[in-house]
Structure formats: structure tokens, C-alpha cells
Amino acid sequence: MTDTNKHIILKTKDLSIGYTSKKSKTVLASSINIELKKGTLVGLIGANGIGKSTLLRTLTNVQNPLSGEVYINNTNLLKYAAIDLAKVLSLVLTEPVASKNMSVLELVALGRQPYTNWIGSLSKRDLEIINKALNQTNITELKHKKCFELSDGQLQKVMITRALAQDTDLIILDEPTTHLDMYHKAYILKLLQRLAIETNKTILFSSHEIDLAIQLCDQLVVMTKTGVVSDAPCNLIKKGTFETLFPKDLIAFDEKTGSFRVKK
Amino acid sequence: MPFIILIVLLIVCFFVNISLGSVSIPLKAIVNSLIGNATDQETWQLIIQNYRLPKALTAIIVGSGLGISGLLMQTLFRNPLAGPFVLGISSGASLGVALVILGSNIFGGVLAALMISKWGIVLAASLGSFLVLIAVLLVSLKVQDTMAILIIGLMFASITAAIVSVLSFFGSAEQLQQYIFWGFGSLGNLTWDDLIILLSIYSIGLILGIASIKSLNTFLLGENYAKSLGLNLKQSRFLIIIATSLLAGTITAFTGPIAFIGLAIPHLTRQVFNTSNHKILLPAVFLFGAIVMLICDIIAQLPHSDYTLPINAITSLVGAPVVIWLLVRKRKMIF
């Protein structure tokens, strides 16, 4: 029991997510029980409006669960102080960075903020970690470029590098492949796969690239109207989970190719 | 290296500022006076020690303080147009001062005498700027669009201007004149005692600004990223706002509203140093602000004439073209 628990980075227990307003409670999904293991790449997929963003917001303590608990490294998420959470969980968000006048190096260095002193001086160790992160994502040659000079794909790599420099067990990315072309979508997800193996970090990302996620992820968390299922991609194909993802009038899942086809 | 040039430039401007004025005093006498030796004429000594020296020191405090408060605002709101003036902080200070100068007859007696004293004006201006800044911040929590926040800041400025006009309508001619002269801006009205008060509050603001360097850098990523890096958003925001209102509020209180320094200096500094790192920007803005303010004051004195122009007009004449030039050259305000 303890032996398997050691390898679980993120765990939810009967988690129920949604919104509360003064009068009503909107439940988007309930009885979510997922476990993410160390060093794995996990994709979160589901149709628009099913609650992917809400689940990510709940897992990252931006909003509170309606009921149930989230555990990171066996500690309840709500028990973390902000600065301690920043040392176990890093984020890559969809929103653009506020200042594009920063150089790549300056931006990546901000990932060390939870560890630096009151004025943010970088130690030798901080610089080592920053350089290692730049190497891991192959953007060392970009490091003196300004962010406004970069393409969308390069900028996404920089944001991933910043998360790496934060040196956390868990990295959560919200739709890291939006705005990218087909090649760069595959490139970014392939990069995440390699990083999960090389750095032994757990990487969770939400995405609409279902066919790529099936090919690259160790595990998928699938949100459908009937509930949240989590398993290895091939098991999910066997169970027929993907057929339940979307309404059946326009597209159908093809088990052989692992992708969706438009109905003729 | 650029820092050394700036420091040398600051010292040069400081001496030029002191040596020029309506009375021409030889450089030798100035140096003698500053190092404490007797000068040939006692009046020279009096002019330098009681008028020109405090004025030059005030210029340094005003330029650096307004520049830094502009930098803090631009980063906090992540908007290149933010500054003590645009966000209505100066209007808040004006309203506070208008209330004590023009409204003093409403309160009457000892209270009025107390309020119209320098401390009363300083307190009112600081309080006014603080309240407007809090109001802008509360709005900014509800409205995410920074453009909307700036427009709301301008609306606050209009509201305060309207209240000031109502007060002026009921004020006496003498009070009105006092308020209008305050509005021209002046660096030369401070005694050594005033300067000490200004310097102490300015220092607190400056220290809070320096203490915010790390959070300012984190804010460059946006608030959600800042939070994910473990930053206490509420506390950092609060510290930055206190620092800004202490700096902009007290400076405006003592010298009147001085335009454009807070907006233009941070942009000039970003262009010259080509960085967004506040560890470099903050000291650089300090030096740039002080230098530009000393130069503006030199122009305002109209050397070798008996006239002194309102300093507020000079900073606008210098600052506005700088902003236009930056926009035309770079086509956008980098931030």
C-alpha cells in the first residue's frame, strides 16, 4: 500500500467540481477518482464545455472543490501554503505573459522565484537549473532574444522551460497546443513526453488533439457526460470510451487508426 | 557602466542647477559655500544654502519619486499608460488640498488653522491620492480590462476636478489664489524643515518600492502566473499601492501636481537600458528622474532673468514630446 502511494503524485478522492452561486450549485462532474503516477504524461480530454478547465482550476487550487479532496504528494491541496505549493506544482496557462519585453532568460529565471531571496537574486544552483531547463527544451540559443521576437511555438517552449525551472514534481498545462500548426502541436506534445521520461516529472495537459494524445500519453483522463474515466489509451479504446465523447451525428471514432473520422 | 554615466550626469546637473538663477554667483563661491567655507558675499551664502540647495534636493526627490511611482503603477496595472496622473492619484491629491485650502472656512477656528498648515496639506494630499488609488484598485478587481481601468481613472480625475470647481466657486479670492499657485507646481517653496518631512516620507515609500522589486518582476508574467509562483497577490499589491501613494501623494502635497515625469521617465529608462528587470529599472529610473527634473528646473528658472516659469508647464513641454517620440520611433510603448 505505502509502496504504491509513494509513486502517486496527484490523487483525487470523490472529487466533485463546478460552481456555486448565491442560490444554485452547478455540478459539472462528480465522483472523480484519478491517480497520476510519477514520471508519466497524462492528457485530459473532453468536449467543449464539459468542465476540463474547471477540473484544472480545481486541481491547481484556483477554485475550491464542491466536495471531495485533491492530494498532491499525499497532502491535501488546501493544506498547502502558496509558496509550498509553488514548489510542487507549476503551471503553463493559455493567457499570454503580461510583458513581452523580457528576454527568454529573464522569463525562465522567474521560475526560480519560489526559491530566491527577498530581492530575487539567483544563486549558482538557480543558474544551473535554469541552464539545464533551457537545454532540455533545446532553446539555449534563444536565451537572449526578447519574447516579442518569438513565434507562438517558440513562446510555448519558453513557457514550458519556465515551468521546468520551477522544478516541481507536477506540471499542469492548459491547452498547450492551441494556436499552433499541426507540426508544432506534435512537436510540443512529443517534447512533453520526452520531458516526463527524462525528468521523471508528472505532466498533465488538457487538449483537443485526441489522436495525438492517444499516441503519446501514458494515461488519459476522459471527461464525458456520464462521468470521468481514467486509464491507459489502449484500454480506453477497448472499452469504447471515445465513442461516448461526442454526439454521434457527425463524427465517429475509428478504433484501427485511433482517430475520429467525419461520417460520409 | 551606464549607471556611472548617469551618476556623473546627475552630479553635473546638480551643480549646474545650483549655479544658475536670477542672481549670478561665481562657481568658486558656490563650491566654497557647499563645502562650508565662507563666501565673499554673505547674501550669496544665504541664497545658496536657504534657497538653491533645498530646491535642487527637492528636484532630485520629486523626479526620482514620481518616476518610481510611475514605474510601480505601470507594472502593477501592466499598462504602459499608467502613471500617477493618468490614474487620478494626482487629482486625488489635488482634491485633498482643495478641501483644506478652499474648504477651510467650513471647518472654522483652530481646526482650520491646523488643517491649512503644511502638515494639514501634506496629510490631505496623501490621503486624497491614497483614496483614489484604492478606488481604482477596487474597480480593477472587478474589471479585468486594463483599458477600462485607465478610463475609469480618468473619470475619477473628472469627478475630482468637478468637486474642485464647486469648491472654488464658494472659496474666497485669496484662497483661490493659494490653490492656483499650488497647482502651478513649485520646487522652491520648501524650507529645510519641510524638506526633512518630505525626505522621511519619501524614504519610506522608496524602501517599500525596493522591497517590492521581486514581486514587481513576478507581476510581469501576469497575476495568475504570479500566484502560481507563490506570490501573495493581495499583500504585494497593497505594498506597491502604499509605496506609490506615499511617494506621489507627499510629493504632490509639497510641490503641487507635476505632470509627465511619472509617465515618461519609466519609458525612457526601459528604452535606454533595454530591460524589464526592476532590479535595474528601479535605480535607473531614480537617476533618470532626478536628472530630468533638475534639467526641467534649470529651464524653468530662465537663467539670468527675473522670471520663473511654472515647473508643471516645463515638465509637460519636455515630457509630452518624449512620449510622442517613443511612440513614433518604436510604434508601440514597450513594456
TrEMBL record, chain A:
Domain ABC transporter: start-end pairs: 10-250
InterPro entries recorded: AAA+_ATPase, ABC_transporter-like_ATP-bd, P-loop_NTPase, Siderophore_ABC-ATPase
SMART domains: AAA
GO terms under cellular component: plasma membrane
CDD domains: ABC_Iron-Siderophores_B12_Hemin
Record-linked Gene3D superfamilies: P-loop containing nucleotide triphosphate hydrolases (3.40.50.300)
GO biological process: iron ion transport
Membrane topology: Peripheral membrane protein
Pfam families tied to this protein: ABC_tran
Molecular functions per Gene Ontology: ATP binding; ATP hydrolysis activity
Subcellular location: Cell membrane
Keywords: ATP-binding, Cell membrane, Ion transport, Iron, Iron transport, Membrane, Nucleotide-binding, Transport
PANTHER family: IRON(3+)-HYDROXAMATE IMPORT ATP-BINDING PROTEIN FHUC
Designated name of the protein: Iron complex transport system ATP-binding protein
UniProtKB/TrEMBL annotation, chain B:
Subcellular location per the Swiss-Prot or TrEMBL entry: Cell membrane
Transmembrane segments: 56-73, 85-107, 119-141, 148-170, 199-220, 240-268, 280-301, 307-328
Domain of life where this protein originates: Bacteria
One example GO MF annotation: transmembrane transporter activity
Transport listed as a keyword: yes
SUPFAM superfamilies: ABC transporter involved in vitamin B12 uptake, BtuC
Keywords: Cell membrane, Membrane, Transmembrane, Transmembrane helix, Transport
GO cellular component: plasma membrane
Topology of this chain in the membrane: Multi-pass membrane protein
InterPro entries with a match to the protein in the record: ABC_BtuC-like (IPR037294), ABC_transptr_permease_BtuC (IPR000522)
Principal location class: membrane
Any GO BP annotation: siderophore-iron import into cell
PANTHER family reported for this sequence: FERRIC ENTEROBACTIN TRANSPORT SYSTEM PERMEASE PROTEIN, TRANSPORT SYSTEM PERMEASE PROTEIN
Family listed: Belongs to the binding-protein-dependent transport system permease family. FecCD subfamily.
Protein name: Iron complex transport system permease protein
Classification of source organism: Bacteria, Pseudomonadati, Bacteroidota, Flavobacteriia, Flavobacteriales
